[in-house]
Backbone:
């Protein structure tokens, strides 16, 4: 990963540029918080991941309104009162991309409780909002989109719906994701797929899952998974193309016999899966439905699909 100046950054904290913190742009390295930050100790915080793309008419943010709305909803679920409106947060994200002169990149808004209080009762801790942005390439490794990735079903279950409310994209969900991802990589896989506490397929460590079976698109109904916005994009594109869509319970063995499988996520975009638990999926290469939806997704994010121009917010 490179700094603005082009040198290699030793740490995400040591880059050059600008971070929006509590209403104003601060220098990248000055955007700090105290070690007694409440969220650092107890994990109550929410975030988003958003991508800006280069289009023929300039840089544009993909589905900015939907991501920002989900940030507000994530906070609402956890009773975190964000001191900013959706419009102000959308404006701030545009400002951060512009200030860092990014032609394309990843935007990370984060709402966290400050160091004003310690203890599980957070009353009195202020809600802070930070927004950073940086260039972020292929999330699941170079060549993932072309070759597809190898996935392992995790030995860790996704949170029970009454343990971690997964419709909230909250910081504390991700300890579970880290355990699963680390386990999968340690065993030579690229990413983990998590089952729920009843044994049905939930989602990837940082992605939603889709299967293709006999030309139909199948997704695990998102009960203990995040309601992904890339997932929503893929569902809309599939319906537009007359591809039947099923949202229901999916079992582990059903993933093994799928004709095709892929992950979706803002960071991962659309990533084909060619192997699950050492079983080849289809012919072991990204399948035709996956490749078709990847191409349609690319056209949308790059502003080449006039039908979905409203998914892009131009930076102007
Ligand atoms: N499930 C999980 C658990 C998840 O983290 C993501 C996004 C998704 C589904 C897909 O959601 P969406 O981005 O709206 O399509 N994961 C974010 C964080 C990745 C990270 O490592 O950080 C992301 O892709 O931005």
Residues:
């Amino acid at each position: 990963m490179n700094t603005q100046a082009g040198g290699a950054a030793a740490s995400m904290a040591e880059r050059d540029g600008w971070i929006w913190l509590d209403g104003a742009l601060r220098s990248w390295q000055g955007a700090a918080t105290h070690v007694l930050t409440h969220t650092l100790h107890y994990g109550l915080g929410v975030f988003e991941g958003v991508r800006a793309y280069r289009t023929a008419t300039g840089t544009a943010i993909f589905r900015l309104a939907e991501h920002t709305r989900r940030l507000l909803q994530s906070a609402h679920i956890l009773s975190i009162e964000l001191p900013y409106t959706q419009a102000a947060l959308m404006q701030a994200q545009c400002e951060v991309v512009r200030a860092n002169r990014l032609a394309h990149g990843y935007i990370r808004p984060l709402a966290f409780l400050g160091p004003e209080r310690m203890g599980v009762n957070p009353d009195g801790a202020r809600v802070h909002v930070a927004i950073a942005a940086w260039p972020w390439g292929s999330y699941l490794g170079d060549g993932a989109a072309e070759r597809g990735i190898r996935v392992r079903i995790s030995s860790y279950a996704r949170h029970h719906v009454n343990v971690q409310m997964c419709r909230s994209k909250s910081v504390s969900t991700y300890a579970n994701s880290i355990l699963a991802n680390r386990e999968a990589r340690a065993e030579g896989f690229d990413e983990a797929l998590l089952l729920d506490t009843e044994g049905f397929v939930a989602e990837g460590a940082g992605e939603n899952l889709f299967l293709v079976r006999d030309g139909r698109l199948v997704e695990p109904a998102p009960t203990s998974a995040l309601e992904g916005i890339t997932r929503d994009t893929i569902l809309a594109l599939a319906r537009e193309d007359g591809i039947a869509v099923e949202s229901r319970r999916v079992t582990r063995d059903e993933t093994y016999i799928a004709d095709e499988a892929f992950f979706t996520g803002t960071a991962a975009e659309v990533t084909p899966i060619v192997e699950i638990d050492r079983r080849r999926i289809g012919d072991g290469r990204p399948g035709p439905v996956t490749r078709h939806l990847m191409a349609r997704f690319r056209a949308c994010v790059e502003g080449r699909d006039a039908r979905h121009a409203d998914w892009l917010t131009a930076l102007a």
Notes: The chain has eight helices and 17 strands. Residues 49, 177, 203, 206-208, 225-226, 228-231, 264-268 surround PPE (CB under 6 Å). The helical segments are 38-42, 64-77, 86-99, 144-147, 174-186, 229-240, 252-256, 288-301.
